[in-house]
Design brief:
Shape: elongated
Number of strands: 10
Order of helices and strands: HHHHHHHHHHEHEEHEEHEHHHHEHEEEHH
CATH topology of one domain: ABC transporter transmembrane region fold
Strand order of the largest sheet: 6-7-8-3-9-10
Mean pLDDT: 85
Largest sheet: 6 strands, mixed
Radius of gyration: 35 Å
CATH architecture of one domain: Up-down Bundle
Strand content: 5-15%
Low-confidence stretches: 346-360
Number of helices: 20
Helix content: 55-70%
């Protein structure tokens, strides 16, 4: 909650104004029963109709002013809460875009989505309510008791005895409910995870007729989250009926004792009516405090989760140049005996506990990777699924740091390069890349300085021009989310166009042509060689035909380099590569 203050600070004057308006409105609301008591006990017995109308009009005027003040205070509180949460979501989104691989593995994407949505909503509700209910409830409670003491101390003692008991009850139960909401939000993370998996893989689920299985998976997590939510809600709702019981008992005592005091001439009838109204106000005050504590419990948990994501310790700091490693090897890209393993503390967590599985060992996914690549050169990487091909790219772009060894670009340790400057060097197509629900133009340009001529050339180089030009609106044709209105081959060509658009220093194609036919794939590779020869090219592929013309080829198996050389050299020296070639291309002569 401490980190929340910096978002409230720019709006403190408005928040203070809202609280003052709400304070004034609540104070005037407390006067209405007092005026009613005066009207009944002092004005009505005079039997002067104009005077009765005057005091009745005074009550109506007070009610109108109270409504006007409360409505304006509520509107301002909603506006302030919306502005605060806008800033929080903006910063959380910026944080999400800059999370490292380990940080993303630790938080997980479903949890990040949950923090961006339900957690920020909880914080917004609290910011809004604390400006209104947070002022109105205590004033109703304290002011109601103060006014009743001034009217009849004997009857007010009933309130003075009950109020501390009810407040203590609300506080104790609220303290118990705070940890419960943390478990509720963790359950929401699991719901978001399963929903995201099913929405993304809906075609697979339908194709394999696994709807009942996925429904049962979702139902199990949903029921567990519902049980947690019910337990938390029941715990936090307990003060409601208890407070109502106490106040009803108090109302009964006020009526009984008040009747005796009226008969004895000690108290006037208007005082009893005013007391009944103040009792209802005090009950609303206590219930308002209970609601504030409930929101505080949710907001405290949610703010902690948001703060955890926004203030994660930097695990990949940019080092000063003098602290970086040095190499005497010539080459634009150098992998110097690199070994890498994913962090099992973040990626190998139990879904329930969030901790690493017991007995799990840290296993290297890359072992002693060593190669150099000249500027403008080309490198092909091939190997079985899970052999570590994409991990090499993750290290090159510094989403992770190696466990051992060093990675260099243009003679500099990547750890000494500013992350934005480093990433601007790349044009990348990842294995599971996405198109956004924007026009083809926006998906390719992607906010970069790409003119129309460059865009047209990029579409031709990526072989996308032939189907984009068929649309009536051309590059302004809208893509559905994830490019669902394009075929697999069309999506891959648009993604390649995006990577080529800014003429990057380093072009990486990670299994980017798997959906293309051999003829289109060959034309694409030829266009890249002709028009992007100054880019250093790294191609990860399953097809030998996609990499056979590269300057150098790496063959990986379970994270180890089992072959390195040109296509002809590997056919002679690497049995695994030769077997892949024979399987795909036919027997070697």
């Amino acid at each position: 909650m401490k980190s929340l203050f910096k978002y409230l600070k720019p709006h403190l004057l408005i928040i203070l104004g809202v609280m003052l308006i709400k304070l004034a409105g609540t104070a005037l609301e407390l006067l209405i029963p007092y005026v009613m008591e005066h009207l009944i006990d002092n004005v009505v017995p005079l039997r002067q109709f104009p005077l009765i109308c005057l005091w009745g009009g005074c009550m109506l005027l007070l009610a109108f002013v109270v409504r006007l003040l409360n409505v304006n205070a509520n509107r301002l509180s909603v506006r302030t809460a919306r502005r605060c949460i806008y800033s929080i979501r903006r910063d959380l989104f910026h944080t999400a875009l800059n999370l490292t691989g380990n940080q993303m593995d630790r938080i997980t994407l479903p949890s990040l989505i949950s923090r961006m949505t339900s957690d920020t909503y909880n914080v917004q509700s609290f910011i809004q309510s604390v400006q209104t209910i947070g002022i109105r409830a205590p004033i109703m409670l304290i002011g109601g008791i103060a006014v009743t003491l001034s009217m009849d101390r004997g009857l007010a003692l009933i309130l003075c005895i009950m109020a501390p008991v009810m407040i203590a009850l609300v506080i104790l139960i609220s303290i118990r409910g705070i940890p419960l909401y943390n478990r509720v939000q963790q359950g929401m993370d699991q719901i978001v995870r399963i929903m995201r998996e099913n929405i993304s893989g809906i075609r697979v689920v339908k194709a394999l007729s696994k709807e009942p299985y996925e429904t049962s998976r979702f139902s199990a997590v949903n029921q567990e989250t519902a049980r947690r939510d019910i337990r938390a809600s029941v715990t936090m709702a307990m003060p409601g009926p208890i407070v109502t019981l106490f106040l009803n008992i108090g109302l009964t005592l006020v009526v009984i004792l008040g009747a005796h005091r009226v008969n004895a001439g000690v108290t006037k009838p208007g005082v009893i009516l005013a007391f009944l109204t103040y009792f209802n106000m005090i009950m609303m005050g206590v219930m308002g405090l209970n609601r504030i504590f409930m929101m505080l419990s949710k907001a405290n948990t949610s703010a902690g989760r948001i703060g955890e994501a926004m203030h994660m310790p930097e695990d990949l700091p940019v080092l000063p140049p003098e602290q970086g490693a040095v190499t005497d090897r010539s080459g634009y890209i150098v992998f110097d005996h690199v070994t890498f393993a994913y962090d099992t503390e973040s990626s190998g967590r139990s879904p329930e506990s969030g901790k690493a599985f017991a007995g799990e060992k840290r296993q290297n996914c890359l072992e002693d990777i060593d190669f150099t690549l000249r500027k403008g050169g080309s490198l092909g990487i091939i190997g079985a699924t899970g052999s570590g091909k994409t991990s090499i790219i993750q290290l090159l772009m510094r989403f992770y740091d190696p466990s051992k060894g060093h990675v260099f670009i243009d003679g500099r340790d990547v750890r000494t390069l500013d992350k934005d400057d480093l990433h601007r060097r790349f044009g990348v197509v990842f294995q599971n890349d996405a198109l956004f629900a924007e026009s083809i133009r926006e998906n390719i340009v992607f906010g970069r300085a790409v003119d129309e001529e460059q865009l047209s050339q990029t579409l031709r180089d990526s072989m996308a021009d032939e189907f984009v030009s068929a649309y009536e609106d051309g590059v302004d044709h809208l893509s559905a989310i994830h490019g669902m209105n394009f075929s697999g081959g069309q999506k891959q060509r648009l993604l390649i166009a995006r990577a080529l658009a800014a003429r990057p220093e380093i072009l990486i194609l990670d299994d980017a042509s798997s959906a293309l036919d051999y003829r289109t794939d060959a034309r694409l590779r030829q266009a890249i060689r002709d028009h992007h020869s100054d880019s250093t090219l790294i191609v990860i592929a399953q097809r030998v035909s996609s990499i056979m013309n590269m300057d150098e080829i790496l063959v990986l198996d379970e994270g180890r380099m089992i072959g390195r050389g040109t296509h002809a050299e590997l056919l002679e020296s690497c049995p695994a590569y030769r077997e892949i070639h024979e399987t795909q291309m036919g027997e070697v002569d």
